[in-house]
Amino acid sequence: xxxxxxxxxxxxxxxxxxxxxxxxxxxxxxxxxxxxxxxxxxxxxxxxxxxxxxxxxxxxxxxxxxxxxxxxxxxxxxxxxxxxxxxxxxxxxxxxxxxxxxxxxxxxxxxxxxxxxxxxxxxxxxxxxxxxxxxxxxxxx
Length: 141
Prior knowledge:
This protein is an alpha+beta fold and about 140 residues long. The chain has helices at about 5-15, 25-40, 45-65, 95-100, 100-110; strands at about 15-20, 70-75, 80-90, 115-120, 120-130. A hairpin with a 3-residue loop joins β4 (about 115-120) and β5 (about 120-130). α2 (about 25-40) runs antiparallel to α3 and α3 packs antiparallel against α5 (about 100-110).
């Protein structure tokens, strides 16, 4: 799934990246991309499936705004931790309703940490997953 350009980038920076159009098929491509990254890094299947699920939520959010290409960056550390960043060009805010719904609950329950970062040129939804996975948090609702 990764291209030679993506492989070269990962070799020099430790980050694998893919750019996707803001269309619904991008979600499946993003899932396949992070699944392949988890496999290459030899991550436990539970971590990999969690990364795939959270990536799906983040890319779905990005595609819902449908403005420009979406970038997915994946990096893993030696301790089994994974950082995924889903970036959209522009300074718009992610749709609040989507961020406060089921997607947020999934991020809260499964990610070690997550957040939204805005710059003058982009908006990034990021999350970090570790092995072992965190214990599910009790819902306050």
